[in-house]
Amino acid sequence: MLTTDDDSLAEKTRFLRDHAMSPAKRYWHTEVGFNYRITNLQAAVGVAQMERIEEFIQRKRWIAQTYNDGLCGVRGVVLPPEAAWAKSVY
Q1: Residue 87 has what pLDDT?
Q2: CA geometry: angle at 62 spanning 61 and 68, to 5°?
Q3: Helix (H) and strand (E) counts in the chain
Q4: How far apart, in whole angstroms, are the C-alpha atoms of residue 40 and residue 34?
Q5: pLDDT tens per residue across span 58-87
Q6: Rama region for 20: left / alpha / beta (φ>0; ψ in -120 to 50; rest)
């Protein structure tokens, strides 16, 4: 599942997810695409998980902090910071 607020990115990903098939000519492919359409069941699971996204993010942050606490001070180990551009990405 992909979410974005970038209209051009959304349009491009919709194009690629359907095998990059030309909207003007069926079964004509102007570039390499993919079959990334999800089923109704997968979509339902994704919606249900998005309703719990804050819980998932909190858990991931707790896991990251546990690693940070346990590994800080270990020579040769450099712990990654949380990405500034996304929630809970390490």
Answers
A1: 66
A2: 90
A3: 3, 0
A4: 18
A5: 998 899 999 999 999 999 999 888 887 776
A6: left
